[in-house]
Amino acid sequence: MASLYGSITVLAALFQLTIHLNSCLAARTNLRKEANTQFIKTSCSGTVYPDLCITTLSSYASEIQASPKLLASTALSVTLNSTRSASKTMIKRSKSQGMKPREAEALSDCMEELRDSVYELQRSVGEMDQPGGKNFGLQMNDIETWVSAALTDEHTCMDGFSGKAMNGNVKTSVRSQIVKVAHMTSNALALVNSYAAAIQNP
Ligand SMILES: *[C@@H]1O[C@H](CO)[C@@H](O)[C@H](O)[C@H]1NC(C)=O
């Protein structure tokens, strides 16, 4: 009877220890998660659209951790993917019936600009993934040039949809998607700039 009681006591102690260890582990994981999210929040505060920056990047916090390089390359990759899907939407839209000639023309111009934008962002993502070798400054310079070009194309596309002559569904749905993509591009450019600056002026 005594030994049974002893076993139960030991088991109970083990059980408590396990609970304690688990909660320590969970607390540590939470701390790390918080630190990663905090890094994204701090970095995003230097962009023009910090809220969008945080919402689009925080789901990658565990991969990014506290790496300015991974933050910049993830921002570029997320932006590329959104630009691609905006481009697809636009192509689908352009096949719909009943558009005014003015709308059809703006849409067609926009499709071209978005295609260029996708291409420029693709080059940037590719360049970011290149291992060192090429001069870092030149590499960053190229990326900054291409991302800026992508942003200009998106603005040109947006402007085509802001005329007073245009209203209705096409304008509203297309424009809001492009605005979001342009804001994401602006944020990605800021994150690339600050990564480049951090390496060049440590
Ligand atoms: C972008 O899309 C590609 C291909 O679908 C995917 O492999 C990649 O993980 C996406 N990027 C991000 C940051 O989600």
From TrEMBL:
UniProt keyword terms in alphabetical order: Signal
A Pfam entry, by short name: PMEI
GO MF annotation, one: pectinesterase inhibitor activity
InterPro entries attached to this UniProt entry: Invertase/methylesterase_inhib, Pectinesterase_inhib_dom, PME_Inhibitor
Signal peptide limits: 1-26
Residue ranges of every copy of the Pectinesterase inhibitor domain listed in the record: 35-191
Entry similarity comment: Belongs to the PMEI family.
Name the UniProt record assigns to this protein: 21 kDa protein-like
